[in-house]
Design a protein that fits this description.
- This protein has eleven helices and nine strands.
- It is of the alpha/beta class.
- Strands 1, 2, 3, 4, 5, 6 and 7 form a seven-stranded mixed sheet that branches.
- A hairpin with a 3-residue loop joins strand 8 and strand 9.
- The protein starts with a helix and ends in a 14-residue tail after the last helix.
- The N terminus is likely disordered.
- The site of guanosine-5'-diphosphate has 18 residues, from helix 1 and helix 6.
Length: about 300
């Protein structure tokens, strides 16, 4: 049971084929588990709040009390995160910014879970039903940080069971502080990957495998977007004086700066591509949000 983190990531991100029958089964599994809980935490990636959303989430969660958490805020653009929160507020949703790795926002998240279930728990108490813990579960698409959040909440180093779509059979409740119980396996939902733009953004964030495109093309697409919305980050990170209008030329300049070049013009595109993608994913290119909302 001492599998490394990476293997879990590979598990849910890469080895799962989301064919339609599979999605249906997953949806049913999650719906069945929803019946067991008082509140569901819907986890999104703050860098891509739209693309990291399951397209059927509203239908799946339906009227169950829900808390929206924007994870990885440490990597996201703070001003855009504020706009997203404002937007959700305008449609009646209290979104909580969190960092599941460092634990930022976790107590706010717990408080929100208590808040949205208070009415129900009060009602149960009034009916004379013995007080019981608030039961919660976490759902989200691959790579949004479900396992990290569970580990953070339960203070474990790694989850006990390998993640599978929906929820695995041998589910367990983990007792948390503050009279809460957490289902220890998250509901893994599929993203809207039939949309090419969404698929790209998911691939940038490593939610789906790089192989949807060759890694060089994927990095070029990312560079294109950064040239458009975060040119300064690109310039600063790779010490480029001016950006070219061509993504390929910018990639070659990055290769040159990093010494990923053999001979005179033999650029190592693969190495450069991996570098740019990894540095974006690790936040080394700065706090970047690829999806914006105007409010
Ligand atoms: N920087 C940062 N990385 C995070 C955060 N939460 C999760 N991650 C990373 O995102 C990747 C996917 O996380 P994981 O918990 O496995 O996601 P899951 O597929 O939803 O279970 C891992 O590399 C985590 O280390 C966060 O709040 N900030
Ligand atoms: Mg996981």
């Amino acid at each position: 049971m001492s599998r490394k983190y990476d293997e879990y990531i590979r598990d849910d991100n890469m080895d799962i084929n989301w064919f339609p029958g599979h999605m249906k089964k997953t949806r049913e599994l999650v719906k069945n588990n929803l019946k067991l809980v008082d509140v569901v935490v819907e986890l999104l990636d703050a860098r891509i709040p739209l693309s990291s959303r399951n397209p059927e989430i509203d239908e799946i969660i339906s009227l169950k009390p829900r808390v929206l958490a924007l994870n990885k805020v440490d990597l996201a653009d703070d001003s855009k995160t504020r706009k997203w929160i404002k937007y959700y507020k305008s449609i009646g949703i209290n979104a909580i910014p969190i960092d599941a790795m460092k634990g930022t926002g976790i107590s706010e998240l717990i408080n929100e879970c208590k808040k949205v279930t208070k009415e129900k728990m009060d009602r149960l108490a009034q009916k004379g039903i013995k007080e019981r813990p608030i039961r919660m579960m976490i759902v989200g698409v691959p790579n949004v940080g479900k396992s990290s959040l569970i580990n953070r909440l339960t203070k474990r180093k790694s989850t006990q069971t390998g993640d599978k779509p929906g929820v695995t059979k041998g589910k367990q409740w983990v007792r948390l502080k503050g009279n809460l119980e957490l289902l220890d396996t998250p509901g893994i939902l599929w993203p809207k990957f039939e949309d090419q733009e969404v698929a790209l953004k998911l691939a940038f964030s490593r939610a789906i495998k790089d192989e949807i495109l060759d890694v060089e093309t994927l990095a070029l697409r990312l560079i294109e977007r950064l040239m458009e919305i975060y040119p300064e980050n690109l310039k600063n990170r790779y010490k480029l004086e001016e950006l070219s209008e061509s993504a390929l030329e910018n990639m070659e300049m990055i290769a040159k700066k990093r010494g990923f070049i053999q001979g005179k013009l033999d650029f190592d595109y693969t190495r450069t591509a991996h570098t740019v993608l990894n540095e974006f994913r690790e936040g080394k290119l700065g706090k970047i949000t690829l999806e914006t909302i105007e409010v």
